[in-house]
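Following up on my earlier thread - several people asked me to post the actual chain instead of describing it. Fair enough. Here it is, all 145 residues.
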Amino acid sequence: MKITDKNDFDKVNVFGLGNENSAYAQYFIGNSYLNPLTDPKETSVFLANVTFEPGCRNNWHIHHAKSGGGQLLICTAGSGWYQEGGKEAVSLEPGTVITIPPEVKHWHGAKADSWFSHIAVEVPGEETSNEWLEAVDDETYNKLK
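Reply from S.P.:
Thanks for posting it. Predicted structure:
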């Protein structure tokens, strides 16, 4: 469901825009917004609604873990992309759920012509960390249709 108009998007983005994701801005092309849905002090499962403006995407990255770990994406509004290293990109629409095992290089973000939100779930594990890698270059991104 592509949504180019921000006002239209706000009507369907049920978990809210949140604040500018300035802490991780260096790992994104474009602007993203973060709305935490759980408090890490109250539960071992952290959930956040992440919103991407049209064309925004995060860098390639890997969720490392000695055991457990990884990430779940639950797509809630707009239209986006998910891609694992060496594989074709997958279109993301509301209702799509992506399971990302630990140690898998990947990226995700909005399509060029749509706002996009997903709930990001950090899967608990032992010795978890994120490794941020190179940006998804414009040539690669603009080829996605």
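Residues 6-125 form a domain with the Jelly Rolls fold (CATH 2.60.120.10). That should answer part of your original question.
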